[in-house]
């Protein structure tokens, strides 16, 4: 009990640190933004402590199947930190921020080809955008997309090398997939496989679809400006990491379906040779 609560509090502190990183590192943050960040930190910390200190399942999937959530959180934290350094370099440049900007510019140039996700995201800027803003958005999008691809590659590699989730021994579907109802009807393996394919397909399409949706929504609502560092950081982070998270979820659910299929195969009684010969 003590170890579980302590682990939940440590996770809550890390979540609070991630959410508050832009406000801590960026200069001249408005007071109303700081208040909103404080409220978000309180809510996120409470939710994290409640989820990871409880015995029964809640909302977080794969809570007891590391390193799924750890890789996702590490990718999110790294993305927010790097994008914050890139934005800080436009206001108060240092050697570290200039290095982050240089790396982001190189990566953006390498993957900014026609119809690429980075190119589509850069089209969210108005036609009369300043050159520095175009460079900033391209660098941020390139870095975020690279981190999401690396996180996806690391998770895929670890599932193969460590034979995830088999290496953890028992895998409790009820705890790790709290939103999945095995009694809803139909074969469990088929439903899991269908959900896995849907998540993988959605994760592949979203980097191209999100800029189109945002661009279309500006005709109905007031367009937001990527000139604000906080808006740029969280928009780019969500654009890059949400598809990667769905892709990872699809891979994880597919592995769970494979695990259940393998357990069924082992549980089936061996057919007698005489029946096979007949």
TrEMBL record:
Write the record's keywords in alphabetical order, separated by commas.
Membrane, Transmembrane, Transmembrane helix
Q: Which residues cross the membrane?
A: 37-59, 71-91, 132-157, 200-221, 233-257
Entry protein name: Uncharacterized protein
Q: Which organism is it from?
A: Rhodovulum marinum
